[in-house]
């Protein structure tokens, strides 16, 4: 289990704390907790380990030992395989802004699906909830993100429509 999952859990922790050494410490703590609770492990160990890591991170955040971080925009564009053109940068900035305005639980369910490539069963296991609850949480998180992304576009189109018209008469 350790050999096949270590780098996945390390990446999971790193994406949330932004420091390699701190992520390694959190990963080690995750595997210590996992070893103690190995009797609780299900048939999908990686999803279960993400759930353990999520709780380890939450304990550290509550204790003030770690804080969630945001990934720099350039890293986000590189990770997505996008170039740095103006439209792409503007879209990425809108997405990051909307993502930050989501609740932590919405961000986590979206991260598990997009960053960690978990299916609904894996998300349910990582979040310690049923598959139906995970599906509802994912659906609602996607809806809220879409609303937040539509809000700036709606505001921009309203600003444009209120702009004075220059030129001749009709």
TrEMBL record:
Which InterPro entries has this protein been placed in? RNA_pol_sigma-70-like, RNA_pol_sigma-70_dom, RNA_pol_sigma70_r2, RNA_pol_sigma70_r4_t2, RNA_pol_sigma_r2, RNA_pol_sigma_r3/r4-like, WH-like_DNA-bd_sf
Which UniProt key words apply to this protein? DNA-binding, Sigma factor, Transcription, Transcription regulation
List each copy of the RNA polymerase sigma-70 region domain by range.
1-65
Q: Which Gene3D superfamilies match?
A: 1.10.1740.10, Winged helix-like DNA-binding domain superfamily/Winged helix DNA-binding domain (1.10.10.10)
What is the name listed in the Swiss-Prot or TrEMBL entry for this protein? RNA polymerase sigma-70 factor (ECF subfamily)
Q: Mind listing the GO biological process terms from this record?
A: DNA-templated transcription initiation
For this protein, the record's NCBIfam families field holds: sigma70-ECF (TIGR02937)
Q: Name one GO molecular function term.
A: sigma factor activity
Indicate the family of this protein: Belongs to the sigma-70 factor family. ECF subfamily.
Q: Where does the record place the RNA polymerase sigma factor 70 region 4 type domain?
A: 94-145
């Amino acid at each position: 289990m350790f050999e096949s999952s270590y780098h996945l859990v390390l990446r999971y922790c790193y994406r949330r704390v932004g420091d390699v050494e701190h992520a390694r410490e959190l990963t080690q703590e995750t595997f210590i907790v996992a070893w103690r609770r190995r009797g609780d492990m299900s048939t999908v160990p990686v999803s279960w380990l993400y759930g353990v890591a999520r709780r380890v991170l939450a304990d550290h955040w509550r204790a003030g030992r770690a804080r969630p971080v945001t990934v720099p925009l350039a890293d986000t564009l590189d990770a997505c395989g996008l170039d740095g053109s103006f439209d792409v940068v503007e879209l990425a900035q809108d997405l990051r802004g909307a993502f930050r305005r989501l609740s932590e639980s919405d961000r986590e369910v979206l991260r598990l699906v997009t960053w960690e490539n978990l299916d609904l069963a894996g998300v349910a296991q990582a979040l310690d909830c049923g598959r139906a609850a995970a599906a509802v949480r994912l659906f609602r998180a996607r809806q809220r993100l879409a609303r937040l992304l539509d809000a700036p576009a709606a505001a921009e189109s309203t600003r444009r429509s209120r702009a004075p018209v220059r030129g001749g008469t009709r």
